[in-house]
Design a protein that fits this description.
Layout: H1 2-22, E1 26-27, E2 37-53, E3 59-78, E4 84-100, E5 103-108, E6 115-121, E7 124-129, H2 136-142, H3 148-151, E8 159-160, E9 165-167, H4 170-177, E10 181-195, E11 198-211, E12 214-227, E13 232-244, E14 252-266, H5 274-281, E15 290-295, E16 300-305, E17 308-313, E18 317-324, E19 327-337, H6 348-359, E20 363-373, E21 379-389, E22 392-402, E23 408-416, H7 420-423, H8 428-433, E24 435-436, H9 443-450
Antiparallel strand pairs: 1-8, 2-3, 2-14, 3-4, 4-5, 4-6, 6-7, 9-10, 10-11, 11-12, 12-13, 13-14, 15-16, 16-24, 17-18, 18-19, 19-23, 20-21, 21-22, 22-23
């Protein structure tokens, strides 16, 4: 009888233990509602080396450190774990100190660009100022690893117990890391414990993709907390070991980055107007990806898609490259020419002759030569030519903009003919938005004039 009772007791204890184990599962399903707000506090530190090429293709390693602090109120407009999410942000703080070798700079987001719309559409993320276009440097300042709009995508939406884990999708990891393109995503999270109503989760894995057209490999190690009452991630820490290959537009990197994020609910009224909410809340179209390049020292400024990158800036020349998912689509040289006297303009025939002389034996045909008035009110001449460079079919597009009393500006765009469909007339925005300005010498320009050597 005693043995029988012991067996029954053990069976009951086993059933009770199994029942208790079943009750340790936790539903990791974020509950986000349009109209709610949270205060995001993001700290980033980076240390390592920047790889730059010098003369004779020699590579030089430059010590690099970055310390950045972002703080913003984020107002949610719409959210989906795998499709479209959009928010409005007001940045109270956005600064970074960048040290390369012995030189350092401090960057800060200007007061007139601190209202930002953020969007994730499938695997792509976008940040855009709702007041005026950002510059590339301003975008880089706020487009850091740890996109808070993407953070809740890490959660599986299922119930799991301590010791259980799940694999992350590209729609979660790509926007979180700010990748342009994600080729390999081998990242996994696992529940490691529960403390004070918060589920402790560890993350690890590797990703391969591109950032700013450059191939990158990242090793990830992270830890974050899921608040069971708030039903969201409230704290997130991530360490990244990154090896980025130099591209045509950015240097290589061998760095370790550490990111710390906290999110706190905000009950006070948000700082956005009804018109801003209405305009940003229309998700039928993706957020625009326009940036501003201000080249007052050269005599012009223009807007451009974020696929365009400035690769060189000289006294009378700016060079750009257009990239898409790591591939070069086109390049463009924008040059400043002396102003013509009032009423005197270059003729279309003269521009075509100049194009033919410039291309020489590479030219096969001129398919278009025309003129029009740009949206900014300037006279514009355009010539489109075709030919080959080392047996590769090329299309060249030349533009010349002019106005009385202002420097003339020429644009020379080169596109492989196989890339024309993907390029999709990506040069027209440069031409249509370009503004001619009276040249304003910078301190560097004044110094070079005083001492030509």
């Amino acid at each position: 009888m005693l043995r029988f009772m012991t067996i029954c007791l053990l069976a009951w204890l086993g059933a009770a233990y199994a029942w208790a184990e079943e009750k340790t599962s936790y539903l990791l399903d974020p509950k986000l509602t349009a109209g709610e707000s949270w205060l995001a506090n993001v700290k980033l530190s980076v240390g390592g080396n920047m790889h730059v090429e010098e003369q004779e293709a020699e590579e030089k390693k430059l010590p690099l450190t970055v310390s950045a602090h972002l703080q913003y109120e984020e107002h949610l407009l719409t959210w989906s774990p795998d499709k479209i999410a959009r928010s409005l942000r007001h940045y109270g703080k956005a600064n970074a100190r960048i040290q390369v070798e012995e030189g350092g700079i401090l960057r800060e987001l200007p007061a007139n660009t601190r209202q930002i719309a953020a969007e994730i559409r499938n695997e792509s993320s976008t940040l855009n100022s709702i007041e005026q276009p950002l510059t590339r440097q301003q975008l880089d300042l706020i487009n850091v690893v740890g996109n808070t709009l993407a953070l809740q995508r890490l959660l599986p939406g299922d119930s799991l117990a301590v010791g259980e884990g799940w694999d992350h999708s590209a729609t979660a990891i790509g926007p979180l890391l700010g990748l342009d393109y994600l080729a390999v995503c081998e990242v996994r999270s696992i529940i490691v414990g529960v403390v004070q109503d918060q589920v402790q989760i560890r993350l690890s894995g590797t990703v391969h993709g591109t950032i700013d057209g450059a191939p990158t490999e990242m090793e990830l190690r992270g830890a974050y907390l899921f608040h069971q009452e708030q039903k969201r991630i409230t704290k997130f820490n991530l360490a990244i070991k990154e090896l980025r290959t130099a591209s045509e537009i950015v240097p290589g990197l061998d760095i370790v980055a550490k990111i710390s994020i906290t999110l706190e609910p905000v009950e006070s009224p948000h700082p956005f107007t009804a018109d801003q909410l209405k305009q940003a809340g229309d998700i039928s179209q993706p957020l625009p990806r326009e940036l501003m390049f201000d080249a007052r020292a050269q005599g012009f400024c223009f807007e451009h898609n974020s696929n365009w990158y400035i690769t060189a800036e000289q006294r009378n020349l700016v060079s750009l490259r257009c990239m898409h998912t790591g591939n070069l689509l086109a390049h463009c040289n924008i040059s400043t020419l002396p102003a013509r006297s009032e009423g005197r303009f270059t003729s279309l025939d003269q521009l075509e002759r100049d194009v033919r002389n410039t291309l020489g034996d590479r030219l096969e045909s001129v398919s278009a030569a025309t003129h029009w008035t740009t949206p900014q009110g300037y006279k514009c001449l355009g010539v489109v030519a075709h030919g080959k460079v080392q047996e590769v079919p090329i299309e060249w597009r030349y533009y010349l903009l002019s106005a009385d009393g202002l420097p003339r500006v020429s644009l020379a765009v080169t596109v492989e003919q196989s890339q024309l469909k993907q390029f999709n007339d990506g040069d027209r925005q440069l031409v249509d938005s370009l503004k001619l300005l009276s040249k304003q010498p910078t301190k560097t320009a004044v110094k070079s004039l005083a001492n030509p050597r």
